[in-house]
Design brief:
By secondary structure, the chain is of the alpha/beta class. Helices cover about 45% and strands about 20% of the residues. The chain is built from eleven helices and twelve strands. β8, α8 and β9 form a beta-alpha-beta unit. The two termini are about 40 Å apart. It comes from Haloflavibacter putidus.
Length: about 280
Amino acid sequence: MISQEQFEKEINLIIANAIREDVGDGDHSALACIPKSAEGKAQLLVKDNGILAGVAFAEKVFAYVDANLKIETLLNDADTIKKGDIAFYVSGSSQSILKAERFVLNAMQRMSAIATKTHKFASLLSGTSTKILDTRKTTPGIRALEKWAVKIGGGENHRFALYDMIMLKDNHIDFAGGISKAINKTKTYLKENNLNLKIIVEARNLEEIKEILQHQGIHRILIDNFNYEDTKKAVSLIGKQCQTESSGGITLETARKYAECGVDFISSGALTHSVYNLDLSLKAV
């Protein structure tokens, strides 16, 4: 996983790029009709039910746009929210509030949707030893936000990107000429480049799991698109030799059954690629 310093750098890049994209050479709508000296106050109004995410991020955005804006927080990240709640008030320059408004809403609506869906998965897995993971199936350019939202919702982050963990999936294995060749080449590569990265290997059937288990130093086996019966067999075969992760079209309806097969993790791309934004609005008061 990436360090907190790297994560903060990603967040700062997202903010800078979003403001560049949205504001350009100026918010001419506000500049045209709102005096520079005008001050105002707005509230973040909740219009949906779910899990709140993005409050801490919104604070960063407001500070980036205008360090003099003041935030009065009433609700925090990970709080359960309902229609009619007020998450926070922001006060100060009216032009600054308007400049930040749409970016804050876009980010918080998506983050809250992801946190809400993650919370549903995490609640379903309660009482088991299985944890829910995200994937790299994120919106290009805002991965750090989406993975932050998963954490807020009670999930865990998988690798952040291609550079912080090795994951040998079906195409890597096929292009390399098989599982053993892919693993051996990877170990050689890591040694030659003095890299200390964990290795996850995907298995498509029980025979591939047996082949993976012939190799030492594998951090986790990805049990991909297995049915319940074969997942149980896979977990039994692997034992304590390495971690186990189920993936492949796992839904809210099937997650609990896969957890009961004994896997350590369930990963779901749907946490980030299949959500509907929670309805939030920023209204002048």
